[in-house]
Amino acid sequence: MYRNQKSQKLYKRGIEFYTNTLERFVKWLEDQGLDNIWIGDLDNGLIQQYFMYLLPKRKNSAKTYNNTLGVLKTFYNVCLKQEWVEGKNPFDKIDKQPEKYGTKNKPFTNEQIANIKEYVLDYDPYLWKIICFIYYSFMRPSEIRR
After folding, report:
1. Rounded to whole angstroms, how far apart are CA atoms 81 and 132?
2. What contacts 88, CB < 8 A, 6 or more positions away?
3. Which residues form the Integrase SAM-like N-terminal domain (predicted)?
4. Do the beta carbons of residue 25 and residue 72 sit within 8 Å?
5. With bands split at pLDDT 50, 70 and 90, how would you rate the model's confidence at 40?
6. How many CA atoms does the CB half-sphere of 80 hold within 13 Å?
7. What's the CA gap between 25 and 49, in Å, rounded?
8. CA triplet 77, 41, 98: central angle to 5 degrees?
9. Distances (CA, A) of 116 to 107, 111, 125, 128
10. What per-residue confidence (pLDDT) applies to 7?
11. 2-27 pLDDT, tens digit each
12. What is the reported pTM?
């Protein structure tokens, strides 16, 4: 049911991430011998153990850690809303990790743009039209590939 509610709002990759995240959590519970635990019995200590497992053992990045926290927190909120459990969301007590932003999406300088434009106009003017189309339509490369 949770997956059906989320699938109405997410793309295929988002649905896969939610499904994989929930399955990974259930697998971890099974590995801990807690495969029959009721969701209402999840406590802060157990949840902290799982998130401590994510960083050193699975070597998740801060972003993956935070995304996992978001999925599990949202899932528990759905359970609360459906009145499958009572009380407060134990995932609310877990702090997010600070995310380090690298140079992955570092913008070009004005000088670099001028050099690229000059080169592309000299060697492939049609490519410059495509670049302008992408730029002025605010498309992201990942959206073009999908």
Report:
1. 46
2. none
3. 5-84
4. yes
5. confident
6. 14
7. 11
8. 55
9. 13, 9, 11, 9
10. 47
11. 545 554 556 777 788 889 999 999 99
12. 0.64
In the chain the first and final C-alpha atoms are separated, in Å, by: 27
Give 67's contacts (C-beta < 8 A, 6+ positions apart). Answer: 17, 21
Amino acid at 34: L
Phi, psi of 22 (to 5 degrees): -65, -40
For residues 97 and 55, give the distance between their C-alpha atoms in angstroms, rounded to a whole number.
10
The torsion of the CA quartet 91, 99, 31, 29, rounded to 10 degrees, works out to 10
- Enter the tokens of residue 83: 């009145």
Delineate the domains of the chain, giving CATH numbers in brackets: 2-93 (1.10.150), 110-145 (no CATH)
